Please model this.
Amino acid sequence: MESKDRPNILFLLADDLGWGDVGFHDSEIDTPNLDRLAATGVELERHYVCPVCTPTRTSLLTGRHPGRFGPHATRPSNSPVLPDGYETLAGMLRESGYATGLFGKWHLGSTPEVGPNHFGFDHAYGSLAGGVDPYNHRYKQGEFSVTWHRNGEFVEEPGHVTDLIVDEAVDWIERTDGPWFCYVPFTAVHIPVKAPQEFLDGYADRQYSDDPVLDLAHKRYYAYASQMDAGIGRLVEVLERMCIRDRTIVIFSSDNGAMPNKSPQSVFLYPGYQQADPIPGSNLPWRGHKATLYEGGIRTPALIHWQGTLDPGRMSIPVHIADWMPTFSKLLGCPASGDPQWDGVDIWPLIADGGAEAAAAPVDYQARAIFWNLKENEFAIQKGEWKLITRLDEGSENAELYNLEEDPREMRDVAPQHPEVVRELLKRIEDERQLDGVSRRPEVTSANVNDEDSEP
Model:
């Protein structure tokens, strides 16, 4: 595909948005723009991510499992993840003539010296660290609290974080000749949860609980998600206005499942006035939540939309966020430099023409194994109908095994009934663990890793 004919890519990533937090999954949250994209695009019903934020972002931008970059990449971390000069998805696309921009949360190294401008992005704006207070734009108190930047220079600007992210992205799209890669990792709906009054007013006449604190917590959370959805609507509108919607691939996902439905005390680590309201996000019907390896932590709402090219539909074969880099490389004719060690695979044959090309693809998508490493002490692997979860140094007798075809909600641990499957999958996990750390930055050791607070 020649450069001038290549489509733009708009990749939208929510933060801590659960499976049950979108209208097209029957949520009480108003998400009309996402609902339209899902109805007119391809919903990816088993699009897996990692259980927490830094690992998911690592996999998206490298096509690899995060543990390949060291143990700190398997958890939320302020320490730099990628080796200097490492080719990311953005860098690969830029080498093939794409303009590249990031608008929102980076979280792969919280200092400008290891920010997105050093890893393939022409323009970068937002938080170098993790989630920020929506109005003062401060990360947690401490070394990395001042984090809001434009191209590595810290900036002070008024406004709500969601509006600022969308404003900057819209401005960049309007003045950038294609093809372009626009990566928009929102900070919504990560704590602290705050939304403008106009979106709160949209829920004023509804009641979600007799408890006024819980009722208001629902309205704040829902309004925050609806504001993000409105921002997505603005981004789609600019594609319409510029007559490039049919030349733009739009992808949406969340970085992990919603937080546990409790009051997050870690909110008080953020500067400014904060309230530890319960977080009423939903991962239903799946078990688990953010920072767990159950489906609720790693299976999120996701879709791909390409007007005029992809017919509406649903795709239910398991895919992983690490698949996007190899997919774009093959689809767009943008080769990676050297011999990429991707863990992801090209999933376009599953998506195009209702999956008609999948049978002829060199990958057995149904039988492939997907691996997770969470904080170097919890591991999971999914292969075919089986999914195994285990903890470090806990033998097969303590492993959990689920048949996702028969029990997608992971209610029945069948490890005792299938010891041979447990042994096979534990061996696969051990094989994958041998590959972890192969691309680790030399100066990052277990002793100097600067992790976030343990609570998400």
Remarks:
- The CA atoms of residues 234 and 439 lie 38 Å apart.
